[in-house]
Amino acid sequence: MGDFWLPEAASTIAPEVDSLFLFVTAVSAILLVGVTGAMLYFVYRYRRQSPGERPAPVEESKLLEISWIVIPTILVLLVFNWGFKSYVKMHAVPSEAYEIRVEAQQWNFLFEYPNGVTSDTLYVPEGEKVKMRMSSADVLHGFFIPAFRVKYDILPNRYTSVWFEATKEGDYDLFCTEYCGRNHSEMDKVVRVVSQDAFDNWLEEAGTSEDIPLPELGKQLYSQRGCQGCHSLDGSEMVGPSFQGLYGRTDHEMSDGTTLAVDENYLRESILKPEARIVAGYDNLMPGSYSSLSERQLTGLIEFIKEQSDKEPPASDQGQTTATN
Ligand SMILES: [Cu+2]
Residue 31 C-alpha to ligand 1 middle, in angstroms? Predict the structure, then answer.
């Protein structure tokens, strides 16, 4: 368990975060002591000792001036470089990561695994990269696992994600870190890190529940909600573009000439707000009525569309569908 100073470090990124934190703290402490000490010494050393005394003229010292510019600059750039590298590592989700869905709502977290199992304790296998794909059914929430040193906002109307690799079996805390209403303080859950075998067993056992898996749900909705009337799965053109090979495209052209990468947020927007961006070569004919789909139905459709593609997801995984010219 942790100590008075920091919580236990139980993920691959944690030691990196901690060493940077310790470095910044140590440098700050040294500077604090140095500056305060020099100040106190000068107050004593140069105090006025007789009523008529005036300060001696001060000579400029090039060496001193250069050093108090250069040394702090080096320190600041060091911290920037170090922090930026860790930041990139934390936010570039490895493509092979195991994906768990997080649905936050007032005041609960629900975790959903690829086979459709849902649970309110987050089970993760030790030594495996895990990606959390998160969305909120209502307001802004936060996702924070102190022992893993991961923290990210969960937003309504879009996905955000974090990833981590747990290094030690055990139970850890998970909190919401955005004030989200009356019972915000009750939004705490347990993260249970178990061995890969124990995880597989748990998942299989829990899988005997009657919840149907997301892609299966998406497939049902695809026919029930009429998508199949306008979108084929085999590449053939209908009123709308085919879903075959759609997800993961990085050069998807819009009617205004921009191209974008097709990720989950683009699919989400295309279903909820079809008028926001029109695919090149098509008309704005898609009904705008799908905004009434539940979060789970929407995710099901997106998972189903993803299954129609064998492409890797686009590299930018932090939410934005960036349009470029
Ligand atoms: Cu919350």
Answer: 38
